Structures
1.
Amino acid sequence: MTISTHRLARETMAFVLAGGRGSRLKELTDIRAKPAVYFGGKTRIIDFALSNAVNSGIRRIGVATQYKAHSLIRHLQRGWSFFRAERNESLDILPASQRVNERHWYLGTADAVTQNIDIIEGYAPKYILILAGDHIYKQDYSLLLKQHVETGADVTVGCIEVPRHEASAFGVMAVDDSDRILEFVEKPEDPPHMPSDESQSLASMGIYVFKTDYLIELLREDALSEASEHDFGKDIIPALVAKGNAYAHPFSRSCVTSSLEQKPYWRDVGTVDAFWQANIDLTDFQPELDLYDQSWPIWTYSELTPPAKFIHDEKDRRGLAVSSMVAGGCIISGAQLNQCLLHTGVRANSYSELNGVVALPNVDIGRGARLKNVVIDRSVRIPEGLVVGEDPEKDAARFRRTENGVCLITQPMIDKLDL
């Protein structure tokens, strides 16, 4: 019998884990959770997981929030309020609120689901899809659901192929030829390799599919265990692997690509360097991630802004941008941009020179500033004549400078400058 992916999606609830801080992003997550960090000119990181769910046909979604959630909750309210209850659609925001145990917030990824079992049972989905809310990728989850049903697995784990020498940073699984998971280990020194390629390993994407009734049974057992850390990757998944009915689903089988994308794209933009690089990569002539693919749109909160504007046409004072992405509401006023990504409402003033700049919304760049390889946080005011990216020692003394030479600039850092 042919399994309808559309029917499976309608029988599924997606539960997005969006409570993580993302401390490796440093000051970018001082006031917002990692899933709420801006990305790609107008979206936030969480928009990718949510868009994948909607585009896959899933219309029941819960988002668990915890760390500094105001920015994230406001974004969800503004940009994701189009679900209609009369069509059996919903998006529930589920803050950690000591609903089950008054002694603690969410203890781990599994506990975040446990504390919302009553809400899940109220919707009575047949399947539940656990998602991480902090990665950049396009995936058709209905194909993952289909494999789960066809194999009769207790759990199906979404995974990506990574070079074996890089796999120690992930939860890694050993599988047999039928994709049954034989072993699941967190950040191993000697990662197991794929059966078909000894140079590659399968790393967990933090995506899991369960039958809802079975997951609830597992979670209630886990909640009673004092030895458990109440985490999917550390407790739930290894226990199911030991029982012998856990399966892997390689990302390459369900990734969504346009005619312009040559290979599956997945990024964890969890460091300042990775965040800067993934944004700058979007400015390439043919980027690895196609944000212009209308068949798989990335939904988000779209602010009402005028078009971007480029003004002045004089020697050394010409508003222009080369190999760059400039969002609505930006004004390039006699500034020169090369390989930059500007989010909504950025203003670059006369005689400024920007190379490899990722500017979050409403940044104002003063006259004559020269900036190279920087990430600028939201609403920062860059002083006139500021130079960043030419003197490594001076940059490191004033800003957050990474090993790869990328500088993160926030307003408190600017306020401390002796100008």
Note: The mean pLDDT is 94.
2.
Amino acid sequence: MSTFPAPKKFPTWPHILTALISGQDLTRPDASWAMGEIMTGNATDSQVAGFLVALRAKGETVDELTGLVDAMLANARPLSIEGERLDIVGTGGDRQNTVNISTMAALVCAGAGARIVKHGNRASSSSSGSADVLEELGVRLDVPIDQLADVLESANITFCFAQVFHPSMRYAAVPRRELGVATAFNFMGPLTNPALPTASAIGCSDLRMAPLMAGVLATRGIRALVFRGEDGLDEFTTTAPNRVWEVRDGKVCESTFDAVDIGIPRATLEDLRGGDAAFNARIVLEVLDGVTGHVRDAVVLNAAAALVAADFEARGTLAERLEVGISRAERAIDSGAAKRALEAWVAATGSPA
């Protein structure tokens, strides 16, 4: 599609909506302007709804998503964390109600020595989101923003609670709820971690959006693996082959990977099924205590994907690098390092063990 020419002075809602309705792609600045109007409360509910529906109907582009991310981060509460930092997160929306695989993988990576800045929220399409299960495990989520870096130094992991850092999302809450359909906003969470990760591992259940998310990460100079199970899971899954988009040196390389090819047994969705926060927290502790099985397989595979994303110096095929990552993840569990990372996190946030 051709790019709609930017106005000479500034965009307007009629300009933006007319472009989208006619099938024209927005420029990154125009998309950023629209998101800025939404995030500052200057857009009406009708304008927000019209924008989200028209954008979704046309089909988002990398430039448009990047513009939305620019504005969302510009309106987020600031957080300054230095050094390498890794996020492991999924978009949600697969409606399979699996256990909290990315949360467990984050703890394993912390135990393996990676510095984790996890961005997450409460459950949306499952019974227990990352925030829900972490609270159940004793991690306090209301840690003041200026103390999150100290928590990271103490435990190698910290949590950026999305609803704390992105209060401006409240301006879109009513239109999103009343629309009741997925929009671009459903994919913004993994792209808008306020800690600005240097590397990310992102599961995306939407086949069309996954490569676009990878494109945004490439534009922003972030190393990443974006992946999707061919059965629709927003995880690097053992239940089916995976489609993978690796982001490295500003470029995106697409490939496929099947865990059975490196000897990991095929699981079923039922093997990974979760429940409420209490149930999922029990599974977390079992995995960290060394219980083997399909859940552990999925956790070490996702942890390996994150470690691959973070290790920009590693060479070899994706499968070869993942095998190295799996070994690191398994050592982190079997040595007790992953469990100690959780215990240090609980202690650092001031919650009772």
Note: The longest strand covers residues 223-229.
3.
Amino acid sequence: MIKVSNLDHFVLTISDIDKTVAFYADILEFDVVRFGENRTALVFGKSKINLHLQGKEIAPHAKNPTLGSADLCFIVENPLTEVVEHLQKHHIPVESGIVPRTGACGPIESLYLRDPDGNLIELSRYL
């Protein structure tokens, strides 16, 4: 029997390393890690996002790596009103929110924005 305990990493196919790193590091305050042969990852909590440049994906990779196809939810510790203020200071539009949702561990409140490749980013806080 297999019992999965947590998510270690996932891969985003992106169009521009610098724009992606700027968004996730400067706006969402993820740590940037360089590894291997010119690889880049974004670290948050106990997980990371490996970045694959479109057309230069690292094998093995998704069958159809596509820009803007991800819909991701990240849990934040700050009140979402503070998150909105932070996003406004950086001229990042909020697409929708603050709205009630259901997270993996119970009720959350969420807001939505997009990264440079159009991936939907949900920032949520448990109630």
Note: The beta strands are 9-14, 31-35, 39-44, 47-53, 71-75, 96-103, 106-114, 120-126.
4.
Amino acid sequence: MTAPAPSVPYIGRFAPSPTGPLHLGSLVAAMASYLDAKAHHGQWLVRIEDVDRDRNVPDADRHILASLQRCGMHWDGEVTWQTQREDLYEAALRQLGQHIYPCGCSRREILDSQTRLAATSPNATLVYPGTCRAGLAPGKSARALRLHTHGTRIVAFTDRWHGHVSQDITAEVGDFVIRRADGFWAYQLAVVVDDSAQGITDIVRGADLLDSTPRQLYLQDLLQLPHPRYLHVPVVVNADGEKLSKQTGAQAFDNGASSQALLEGALLPAARFLGLDLHAATIPVFWQAAIPAWERLLRARGAF
């Protein structure tokens, strides 16, 4: 995959889920996407990924936006919410047509079908064996909609941080869900449709989503959408080596702290985690130093 042509304006984004306040791990992802957009003199958009309604926490989106502003990260244009864009997902579903089929399998049934589950993660992707690909078994009703991947070639791309990445979707993932059993849109479809609709040219996010990128590239091809560039930064982990998240007890970094406390307790540690050795007395001075430092870091890695 090649970089966008120089004539294409850079448009990046930060897309948090409103499942709670931002923590240090999400701040690292937000900061990397913001710095990359600013270093490229581009736009930085914010999209609230609230399509999984069962996990949304009331007012979490408002708290997220307030925290970004208190940290000095100001977005371009209007904030968007996925729950306001479901007509776009319906249109994409119709476009996929014969590539999708109903599935009546539960997660337990897939696991029991001798499928591969990574022992290190209870949330690892189950390789779907194609049980319902030829039609629902007698007595089964449709639970989800899956995307047909059988026979798909290996999907490869160049990540700006990790270099060459490839995945055999059929062998490593199988036919994956695009509308879930609970009726909600799956992340893979929603993010691809949203990024295209917003004209996103560059996606900067955590390396925990590196494994999802080949599926998104495959969907982009089926929907005849352009490929953005990708950069996946390292993720913050806790003392047990688990990704820092709300599920693993990550604490909010912004609990009404002073600007100085935000700078010293959140912004500077996040920047140092990304490899930026910065010192600043105020938040505005921090960003003045961080943007060129990010460009220097990426140029040294051959990733700018």
Note: Confidence is low (pLDDT under 50) at residues 1-6, 114-123.
